[in-house]
Amino acid sequence: MFRSIRWRIAIPYTALILLATAALTVYFSGFMRQTHLADLRAQLTSEARLVGEAVAPLLVEGGTVETIDPLVKRWGELLEARVTVIRASGVVLGDSHEHPAAMGNHLGRPEVQQALADGLGISTRHSRTMDYEMLYVAVPVEADGQIMGIARVALPRTRIETSVARLRCTVVVASLLTALLAGLLALLIAGQLTRSLRGLTHLAERLARGDLDGRIYLSSQDEVGRLADAFNRMATEIQTQMESLADQRNALTAVLTHMADGVVITGEEMRVRLMNPAAARMLGLSEGAATGESFVAVARDHQVVELWRRCQESGEEQSETVEIVGQGPFLRVVATPLRGTPQTGCLVLLQDLTQIHRLETVRRDFISNISHELRTPLASLKALVDTLYNGALDDPPAARRFLERMETEVDALTQMVRELLELSRIESGQVPLHLEPTLVSDIVLPPVERLRLQAERAGLRLTVDLLPGLPLLLADAERMRQVFTNLIHNAIKFTPPEGQVTISAKANGDAVIISVTDSGVGISFDDLPRIFERFYKADRARSGGGTGLGLAIAKHIVLAHGGRIWATSVEREGATFYVALPALTPR
Predict the structure, then answer these.
(1) Whole-angstrom distance, CA of residue 517 vs CA of residue 574
(2) Which residues contact 560 (CB under 8 A, 6 or more apart)?
(3) Are residues 99 and 141 in the same domain?
(4) Interior CA angle at 154 toward 152 and 159, to 5°?
(5) How many CA atoms lie within 13 A of 576 on its CB side?
(6) Quick one: which of 140, 253, 491, 556 has the fewest CB in 10 Å?
(7) Number of C-beta neighbours around residue 537 at 10 A
(8) Domain span at 395
(9) 57 C-beta neighbours (distance < 10 Å), count
(10) Digit-coded pLDDT (tens) for 460-505
(11) Do both 525 and 406 map to the same domain?
């Protein structure tokens, strides 16, 4: 209860009202008692004087008990009080409640003595006659300036106290009603105040939970109303700022999420505070798992960690190109200290140079391979020309033989240039494809029949396994025959005698997979990822001749059809080349 400000306001206020009312009740009770007693004394005095005036003639005539006592008893009934008439000598001549003969001399009574001395006697004492407390008021009865007797009127103390108690009860009841009304008023006022405060509290709780749409509207213009207006303005300002921050955060999140470079931000305790998806992908981690972890555990590479540590220690930007151990990507790592921010830390930028590195490697290999491919025929041509100049022209049979060899080398160079031009045109999309619904057999069987004689001469078994009911392919049949001619020719060339070359096809979902499998020497694990690069040839391939462009051309023709080509191999056990082409969905 006391946790509520409503009760903390109402209860002390009510207690104060009760205390003040109680004090006023005590004061007014005493005051009213004294006032009532004073009024009662005045009333009894008036009544005593009336009685005195009534019995004065009787006393002058020497009244006796027989003449006065009946009159006194009638006055007692009329006044509803005890009335006593006493001779100046103290002898009781009449009493409204007792027989005068049974009463002793009253000259020594305090009220009688005071009345004789001062003209008015008032006394509150225990009555020996009545045996209870009474209030006495006595006045002298005079005639011709001479005191003839004493007229006394008395009331029981109990009647006085009862009258005072009724008055006190009235005051107490009125005080309690006043306190009750004051308490209810305090509760009402406190309730109105706390209702407004509860609304403000609820609004503050909504703001604390992040609900910035809440508002409170009060009609009052007092301090609470102004506080509510301030709350509303604060909520509006916070909402505006939060929306602005949210827009900035969303823009930053979108940039970090979609940027190709990796971003890692570390804090003072060398733990990761933020990592974007690109950085998680480069480091082989999940984005959520890295947050809060040590940067050393996240980077897992001593070069990256050392670069980051140098940045932390020197406070200067550090950059280096590293290769992540065990994963292979080449990264450009730039570590920059965060300055002008509330928390010190470091920004690590990761740029993936793997593709650039791979392209650079391909470029170097291309230059090396084409140099090798051109050097051999050019050197042969140079030697043949020198031989002709040195006298072979004078020997027609020898000259003819040398010219035939020169023609062979020129044809090889021409074929290489032709294949390079064709590959360049295919890569640039300048070779149009004549796509039409085509049977798988129309693609596979012509190259098989063309090369069957070559396979038989090499002592190989060339078999075709096409499942029935294969879907049609939307393909350029002539270009796809070129692909399989190259694949089957390579399989025959690198398979030893008594080996086998198998061409098969099967439907796989929305595609048809055609495979060429041989039992030849196979392809090494290191060479397998690069066999589709132009001019790339393994050592075993160099001894077999060729330009090294056939698989590169085949790859780009398949890609132009929306397909995929790949190979699997176990060294010295053979290789399998797969071509997956989209199937033509029947309408």
Answers:
(1) 7
(2) 426, 429, 431, 433, 479
(3) yes
(4) 170
(5) 12
(6) 253
(7) 22
(8) 370-427
(9) 11
(10) 999 999 888 899 999 989 889 989 998 999 999 999 999 999 999 9
(11) no
pLDDT at residue number 323 = 77
User: What is the average pLDDT across 310-329?
Assistant: 77
Q: Answer yes or no: is pLDDT of 514 > 90.
A: yes
* Closest listed residue to residue 69, CA positions, set 41, 48, 37, 97: 97
Q: Are residues 463 and 384 in the same domain?
A: no
Beta strand 564-570 with 511-518 is unpaired
The count of structural domains within the chain is 4
For residues 180 and 176, give the distance between their C-alpha atoms in angstroms, rounded to a whole number.
6
Rg (CA), the chain: 64
- At 512 the pLDDT is 93
Strongest mean pLDDT among 92-106, 213-227, 368-382, 434-448: 434-448
Alpha carbons 108 and 529: distance in angstroms, whole number: 145
Q: What is the CATH number of the domain that holds 287?
A: 3.30.450.20
Q: Is residue 145 left, alpha or beta, with left meaning phi > 0 and alpha meaning psi from -120 to 50?
A: left
Q: What is the pLDDT of residue 319?
A: 85
pTM beyond cutoff 0.70: no
Q: Is residue 308 part of a domain?
A: yes
DSSP string, 332-392: EEEEEEE-SSSS-EEEEEEEE-HHHHHHHHHHHHHHHHHHHHHHHHHHHHHHHHHHHHTTG
User: 111-120, 507-516, 524-533, 561-570 — which is least confidently predicted?
Assistant: 524-533
Give the whole-angstrom CA distance, residue 259 versus residue 348: 14
Taking a C-beta distance cutoff of 8 angstroms, is the pair 523, 538 a contact? yes
List beta partners, residue 156: 134
Rounded Cα–Cα distance for residues 365 and 386 (Å) = 31
Reduced DSSP (H G I as helix, E B as strand, rest coil) percent helix, strand, coil of the chain, to 5: 55, 20, 25
pLDDT of 541 higher than 50: no
- Domain boundary (383, 403, 427) is at 427
Report CA torsion sign: 23, 24, 25, 27: positive
From CA 136, how far away is CA 56, in angstroms rounded?
20
Question: 427, 447, 471 — which closes off a domain?
Answer: 427
Tokens at 107, concatenated: 């000259």
In Å, how far from its chain's centre is CA 498?
Answer: 72
- Residue 473 pairs in a beta bridge with 438, 583
Q: How far is CA 17 from the centre of its chain?
A: 49
pLDDT tens readout for residues 123-153:
888 777 667 778 889 999 988 878 889 999 9
Q: Are 394 and 485 contained in the same domain?
A: no
Q: Do 11 and 153 belong to one domain? A: yes
For residue 530, give both structure tokens: 């690069």
CB 40 within 8 A of CB 160: yes
Region 39-59 average pLDDT: 87
Whether the CB-CB separation of 27 and 19 falls below 8 Å is answered with no
- Which distant-in-sequence residues (6+ apart) come within 8 Å of 109 by Cβ? 123, 136, 138
